[in-house]
Amino acid sequence: MFKDVLRELVERTDGAIASLLMGFDGITVDSYTRDPSALNVETVGSEYSVVLGQIKQAATMLDLGTMQEVAVRAENMTTVIRLLNDEYFVAMALTPSGSLGRARYLLRVQAQKLLDRLS
Amino acid sequence: MFKDVLRELVERTDGAIASLLMGFDGITVDSYTRDPSALNVETVGSEYSVVLGQIKQAATMLDLGTMQEVAVRAENMTTVIRLLNDEYFVAMALTPSGSLGRARYLLRVQAQKLLDRLS
Questions:
Q1: Which end of chain B is less packed: N or C, by CB atoms within 10 Å?
Q2: Residue B101's closest chain A neighbor by CA?
Q3: What is the pLDDT of residues B3-28, one digit of tens each?
Q4: For residue A74, which residues of chain B lie inside 8 Å, CB to CB?
């Protein structure tokens, strides 16, 4: 139901490793990994889900409006997270040289499709 | 000592509102705001400093290597944060239509200058 979108995100982005649809409770709805041995994408997602909740709280407190996207670049991996609604987010993991701009663009255009299927 | 770099970051980026050099303890080293009435950049920075600490912890736990950069897009503001070392980060606040790519580029090229002056 979600796998085709999650696969497309990864296959159409240079340097993408995995994609993930997850609830803010850290429970995976679905995921797709290019190389399953490379990364436990669900572990990464559930760690980040906690932090995302806190960023959301900070943004609300600061009156910055609805949170839309978070990108984290670390030495070994870039993560881009697109918030779908108050319950779910979709995320992509990329190699450090992966195309962050492309990932952000595809997440944005595919977000509505995922939202429609979630409801 | 830092103001010239912080001013340059803002003035050379379309849609930039403010820049900030801060410790992870939430204490401001220096800041520059294009329109001081628009935003309390130190309040935003100190809220985000808490979250940043948690993202750093998550990245370490997940073995993703050193955290380098975090970008948060909210409805009313985009924030780009570049980590300088274990103690300090530099951040920029932009309008939603501001140039995120430009901000990221300038933060990256100016990071070493700030680091040199901090030591």
A1: C
A2: A101
A3: 999 999 999 999 999 999 999 999 99
A4: 59, 64-68
